[in-house]
Amino acid sequence: MKKIKSVELETGLFILLGFAAIFFLTTQTTNIESYLSDDGYDVTARFEDIGGLNIRAPVTMAGVTIGRVEQILLDPERLEAVVVLKINPEYHQIPLDSDASILTSGLLGGQYIGINPGGSFDSLVEGSEIEFTQSAIVLEDLIGKYLLSVGDE
Amino acid sequence: MNNFLKDFICSIILAIKKVGASTIFLIKISSCLPRIIYTRPELVIKQIYNVGALSLVIIMVSAFFVGMVLGLQGYDSLARFDAETSVGAVSALGLFKELGPVVTALLFSGRAGTAIASEIGLMKTTDQLSAMEMMAVNPIEYVIAPRFIGGIISMPLLTAIFNAIGITGTCIVAVNLMGVDSGVFWSQLISNVDLADVTEGIIKSIIFGVAASLIAVFEGYNCSPSAEGVGLATTRTVVSSAVTVLILDYLITSAII
Amino acid sequence: MKNIENIVEISNLSLKRANNQIFDNISLSIPKGKITAIMGPSGTGKTTLLRLIAGQLRPDEGDVIVNGLDVNKISDQKLFSLRKSIGMLFQQGALLTDINVFENVAFPLKENTKLPNSLIRKIVLMKLHAVGLRGAYQLMPSELSGGMARRVALARAIALDPMLLIYDEPFNGLDPISMGVILRLIKNLNDALGITSIIVSHDVPETASVTDWSYIIADKKIIASGTPQQINLDQSKLVQQFIHGLADGPVPFHFPASDYFNHIISSD
What we know:
The structure holds 3 protein chains of 3 kinds.
Chain A: H1 2-28, H2 33-36, E1 41-47, E2 58-61, E3 64-75, E4 80-87, E5 99-104, E6 111-116, E7 129-130, E8 132-134, H3 139-152
Parallel strand pairs in A: 1-7, 2-6, 5-8
Antiparallel strand pairs in A: 1-4, 2-3, 3-4, 5-6
Chain B: H1 2-39, H2 41-52, H3 56-79, H4 87-125, H5 128-134, H6 139-177, H7 182-192, H8 195-221, H9 227-256
Chain C: E1 6-17, E2 20-31, E3 35-39, H1 46-53, E4 61-66, E5 69-70, H2 76-83, E6 86-89, H3 101-112, H4 117-130, H5 146-157, E7 164-168, H6 176-193, E8 196-201, H7 204-208, E9 213-218, E10 221-226, H8 228-232, H9 237-244, H10 260-265
Parallel strand pairs in C: 3-8, 3-9, 6-7, 7-8
Antiparallel strand pairs in C: 1-2, 1-4, 4-5, 9-10
């Protein structure tokens, strides 16, 4: 009987250790907050060119992450990129006339969306569209323009 | 040359046959899984102990050293790009997505898979399985199913433990030995590892658990009842498990990415 | 003999395994309440015959009827319930090695009945007492001698009070004392419980001392049957060679080979 007890004890320890490891991996080594805050509201923004923007890229305001890129689509008529942003529910007072631009962290880092607040008293709500947008700066275009302008002089 | 080709085709047909036979075996096992879990949970617990808890030491030691090597190699390689601060993120991604599930599965087949195959093979050799049939007890339900489900439950837990210990090993090397700031190490790691990366590894490990456990019980149950047959079954278990796990790994990875 | 009901009836049975014909159209019957022996040289498929009776193997042709049921035509469920009424003693005992003697004997009871544990304990101790090993109930199978292991296996085989007991080579590799014990047990169980017994063996004198009826199988067929006395008087040379253990006879001493003299002088 004593032997069976020790089997049960060690099996229990093993299972607990396993679940503790899963808990550690999911909470301590990942940015799990972005998944847990699944609630929030969606707003859209149209861009001529999104460059290398990816789904799940952060949406920031004044450097603070306030949401994530939820979805990237192409409008088949206007041939523009439609980006759906999921904004965390606690940030519900973002002015309606704010503008969104695609920025790059560092010279070659990942791209994210920065939002500059406008002055309107109305706020963005579920389904709103951010009308003022600035596309991604594509490095190759920039270099091309620079070379052209140098050539002109 | 002609002979060689013939042998090659023969061995491919044999391999296909084996896949078919083990699939049928899997269906047979699955049909008695709910019953055994519901009516005889103590058998399953005993097998979780045998294949999981007893594999814990080898998994933890291996994980620690794999993690430390990742720290050293990662630091050395990344330093050439002046990116040594990302060593945590790079090691964690490699560990969680790839090395954790694969190395755990290989160690599992070497430690637990061989034990399962030789135990079942020996039970067959000494007529214990036939004796059960004669006592109106289905050996697939009583012997095979608990070992199979025990392996499937143990594998993801072992993998999670492997990942956690491994990344701890990496951290110790990177921070204490190579002088990466521990705050930078963890912030880089946290901001670059997604929950999806962790779950990818765990999902892989569940699939590997099904494959490695199935191969072990299949080889044990179908071995020829002799000392030589049992030895052959354990060898086959390790070889087939290793190849199957690596092939499955590629297939799953290509499906996910 | 004819008006006694038969518990096992095998008719026109043939079995082939990997190009080897093992049985060719054999028929035999096992009468109820008697001890019947199936004897024959090694490798003639005696154990295979037992597996056929227990429904673990299927014949290519012919019927195996046990207690009125055709074992190859009934559902798995019915086959399993039939097996509960058959006890089988395997060559090496086949005790489950990871549980002790008590648990081994309790195994068929726990798996097949819903008896309370206190009653199971009483039954197990009674069965162990019947084979003289009540004192060994706490030992593990690895701690038992060959003869003791077989007695425990016998206790396990009679745990469910079967109507038919099958012994597969019960005397194989036993010392004379253990052999005497097993012989006495077979006889006592048959007389006291009214169990039908089938003994498969090639130990002629020991088997003959307890059986009521014997079959001798050789060369895919039944070559003789009858009471031990009748078998003893059988005129067939093969039967005489087998029961008297002669080195040469219809079963030659030499494996088929080419001419001796030519083989020796050839360079090969």
